[in-house]
Write a structure and sequence with these properties.
By secondary structure, this protein is of the alpha+beta class. It is built from 2 helices and 4 strands.
């Protein structure tokens, strides 16, 4: 999937991945896509809730080898 910016949140625990995501999204314009890579197992529920609360679209989420990859589109 194409993305405009990447956020490496590996090794960070809640709420840091969400806080860094919020900051990174603020630097993007509407419609741009942020790729987030995290290792916190709680990140799946956190990013789903964050998308619902903020109106940003969670395009996809995947898990591979202990890492979680998310693609979020700025509203």
């Amino acid at each position: 999937m194409n993305f405009d910016k990447e956020l490496d949140a590996r090794g960070l625990n809640c709420p840091l991945p969400i806080l860094r995501c919020k900051k990174s999204l603020a630097e993007l314009t509407a419609g741009q896509v942020l790729k987030i890579v995290a290792t916190d197992p709680g990140a799946i529920k956190d990013f789903e809730a964050f998308a619902k609360q903020t109106g940003n679209e969670l395009l996809s989420s995947a898990q591979a080898g202990g890492e979680f990859t998310f693609f979020m589109k700025k509203k």
